[in-house]
Design brief:
Elements lengths: L15 H12 L4 E2 H14 L7 H17 L3 E4 L2 E4 L8 H8 L1
Antiparallel strand pairs: 1-3, 2-3
Helix pairs in contact: 1-2, 2-3
Length: about 100
């Protein structure tokens, strides 16, 4: 019986998509429909020149990251709208870097 070697991929670079989701959701207490939230994040990423892979691929990545924030209890989903909770800043890469140091 052959055993498979499992390797774990660790991304060391800052996650710009999650950072911008945190910035938008943490800036106000309002509920964002996903399309409006994505447009805000996409504009911020274009300003930082951090857009790669096309808009549709970025939309999928942003949705996946947003669902991860909801699962971790850092964002709230109400129907198809999202709101950042008090601890949303914990997901920002600056905070994660401080925790690892």
């Amino acid at each position: 019986m052959a055993t498979t070697k499992r390797t774990r991929f660790s991304r060391r670079l800052p996650d710009h998509v999650t950072d911008e989701l945190v910035n938008v959701l943490g800036s106000t207490d309002k509920l964002f429909p996903f399309n409006e939230l994505f447009e805000d994040v996409y504009e911020r990423l274009k300003e930082r020149n951090a857009v790669s892979g096309g808009e549709e691929m970025l939309r999928l990545r942003a949705y996946e990251k947003l669902q991860n924030l909801v699962t971790r209890g850092l964002a709230e989903k109400d129907g198809k709208e999202y709101r950042g909770l008090e601890r949303i800043q914990e997901a920002h890469s600056d905070n994660l870097a401080q925790q690892e140091a």
